[in-house]
Amino acid sequence: MLEVKDLKKKYNNFQLDCSFRIEEDQVVGLVGRNGVGKTTLFRSILGLLRPDEGEINLFGRSVAHLTEADKARIGVTFPHSFFSEQLTIAEIKQVMIATYSAQFNAAEFDQKCNRLQLPLDKKVKNFSTGMQTKLKLLLAMSHEADFLLLDEPTSGLDVIVRNEILGMLQDYLDQKNNRSVLISSHISSDLEQLCDFIILIDDGKIILQEETDNLLNHYGILKVSEQEYSSLEQEFILAAKKRSYGYACLTNERRYYQENYPKIAIEKGSIDEVLMLLAKGEEQ
Ligand SMILES: Nc1ncnc2c1ncn2[C@@H]1O[C@H](COP(=O)(O)OP(=O)(O)OP(=O)(O)O)[C@@H](O)[C@H]1O
Fold first, then answer.
1. Does residue 278 sit within a domain?
2. Where is the ABC transporter domain (predicted)?
C-alpha cells in the first residue's frame, strides 16, 4: 500500500530520515513526542512537501505522480486544517458530492451524522471541538478511501466519544478488504486497541517498528536497583534509564527475566513507557 524509502527532509536543526512499509489491510500507529516529525512525514506522504531525498510510493506509484483517481482513494484528517468553518455540514456535503461523485455515499453519511448528533444545518464554527473532530473523521471515511492518513484523530474527545469513533473506524476497516491506515496519536491505549503495528519515532528517526501483539506480549520494563542492574544479563536489554530507585530497563524478552530473575519487579509496560525509555533525553 505505502512504501517510504530513505525519506530525508531537513529543516535547520531537524532532519527527518526514515523508511517503512504499510501493507494492505494493515493499521499502523505512529507514536512520538511533539516536534519529532510526524506532520512532516504525513505531509511528505501526501505530496504536500518535497523531500530532499528518498522515495514515497502509494498504491504502487510515486506520490509525486498520483492521479486524481489515486488521490480520491486517500482519506485524511489533520488537527489544524479543515473546510471553512463558515460552512454547514449540508454545504460540505455538496463539496464532497462534487469532489467524489458516486463514491460519496450521502445517505450513509447523513445516517452517521445523525448517530453522532452532528446537525446538518449548523455552521461548523459553532461546533464543539469534539463535534468538529468527529466530523473530520466521518468525512475521511465517507468516500470509500483505501488508505486513511489520520493525524491525531481522537484528540480533544472524551473517552466515550473516542471509543465510539474507534468503533466506527474498525467497522470501516471490516467493511472491505485491503484498507490500510496510518494513524498518529498521543493516546497510546487507542493505538494498542486498533493497530497491528506500531512505529515509534524520535527526533526524525524511527526508533522501533514492532507488531503490537509482540510489543504487548514480549516487551517489558524491569525496575531494578543499581546492584541488581550490575548483575543483570544485558543481552536482551534494549535501553536503560536512571531512576530514583536505580534503573528502568526495557527488554523484548520479558519471560526470560521473569523466569531467571523471579525477585525483580517486571511490568508489561505501555507504548508510552516503551517510548520514554527509547527516546533521547535523560541519562542512559
Ligand atoms: N516549514 C517548516 N520550516 C522550518 N521548520 C519546520 C517546518 N515544519 C516543521 N519544522 C520543524 O520540523 C520539526 C518537526 O515538526 P513536525 O511538525 O513534523 O513535528 P510533529 O511530530 O508533527 O509535532 P506535533 O506532535 O507537535 O504536531 C520541528 O522541529 C519543527 O519546528
1. no
2. 2-228
Q: Give the CA radius of gyration of the chain.
A: 21
Rounded Cα gap, residues 53 and 9, in angstroms: 7
CB distance 2 to 61 below 8 Å: no
Query: Is 248 found in the same domain as 160?
Result: no
Q: Are residues 59 and 161 in the same domain?
A: yes
pLDDT at 84: 81
Question: What is the percent of the chain where pLDDT is above 70?
Answer: 99
Of ligand 1's atoms, which has the minimum distance to the CA of residue 43?
Answer: 18
Give the Cα separation of 8 and 43 in Å (integer): 13
- Specify whether 63 is located in the same domain as 103: yes
Q: Looking at the structure, do residues 232 and 200 belong to the same domain, yes or no?
A: no
Q: Can you give the pTM of this predicted structure?
A: 0.89
Q: What is the ipTM of this complex?
A: 0.95
**Ligand 1: residues whose CB is within 6 Å?**
11, 14, 32, 34-40
Domain extent at residue 238? 220-267
What is the reported pLDDT for 282? 62
